# Entry
Amino acid sequence: MEKNNNVEKSILEVLESIRPFLNADGGDIEFVKYEDDYLYIKLLGACAGCSFIDYTIEDNIYESVKEVVPECKGVINLEI
# Structure
């Protein structure tokens, strides 16, 4: 349980570092959960319908999280 709390804390720190870039484009990100080595998020605002959503998830969010949580297998966006 302690390890999972540390993983979630690390993920939240990464998401906080990404948030200003999303906010600048009218979007936001919400952490939902980290389960079975997958990060579940909700992209909000302008990000939810953006044509670059796949790029944002794969190349920005996933790559940033993977740097601090190497066992992360992917990021899943839960649509609103």
Remarks:
- The chain has one domain: 2-77.
